[in-house]
Amino acid sequence: MPERRTILVTDDSSANRDLLAGQLSNLGFWTEAANNGEEAIRVARRLKPDLILMDVEMPVMNGHDACKRLKLDPLTAEIPVLMMTGFDPRPERAKMVEAGGDDLIVKPIALRDLQVRVRALLRLKELRRDLRSTQESLRELVKRENPTESKAPFDDRVALTAQSLARLIGLDAEEQGGLTPEEFAQIQQHTVLGAQIAGPFRPATVLAPAIRHHHERWDGSGYPDKLQGPAIPMMARIVSVADAFHAMITDRPYRPRHTVAKTLEILAAGSGAQWDPRLVAAFATSSLPQRIAGTVEGDEARIA
What we know:
Blueprint: E1 6-10, H1 14-26, E2 30-34, H2 37-47, E3 51-55, H3 63-72, E4 81-85, H4 89-99, E5 103-106, H5 111-145, H6 154-168, H7 181-198, H8 204-213, H9 234-248, H10 260-270, H11 277-284, H12 288-303
Helix pairs in contact: 2-3, 3-4, 6-9, 7-8, 8-9, 9-10, 10-11
């Protein structure tokens, strides 16, 4: 018999907590309760729940602040946080992304909606765990095939940026130098080989298309399959924007890093040609670019 999952319900209203706890119990989950964000942090660190339901407006510490602290703590960073609000969800969704939350649901919550959101986030947690395992396996393969490859933490950053951009919408800007056509064709093969390497792993249905197609272009002139517009898998489009942003804000042997403003200018210029215009617009008008750039600079300072 599978182990029952535990969900931490955080709401300052005892009536709401009891209602949600009853609904979740009927769905087969164990529940624990907290009446504000500060208490939720304490309980989460002790209990390590499988998921946290977090109300936005609470005394002592609100849901957004609590979520930020949970996501910064290695002990609780991997726990999915489903934010709850009784207000207009449109501005709240942006705040949820800013806080690092995983999804937003509007109160009063229908049982069916609660069931779908909770099970989806629990499945996402499993996929993230599998993806970490896959990334480690891929790193080992890359090390064996390229023992002189310089170590850099940018792959993880691109993945996190892509994940944040995907949440934001609700769901290569690098110079080529003097490469010959034969050399460029060889470089293009990394998208096909990467997808083949990822194939045997369980999350390959998500990972492999993103690897294979993240160098496709919105106008159809990319590689390896010259897909165009919506025919490019959404995850590949997201990774393409994230990959390009990180490439431009980091130093390269052939050029210094661009500023965030310059990078966003380049992304805007390529919107509708290289990148999905909807994704570029969502990314550029959010707080993600500045936050990501600050994280990169902090990491590089520690590495140096």
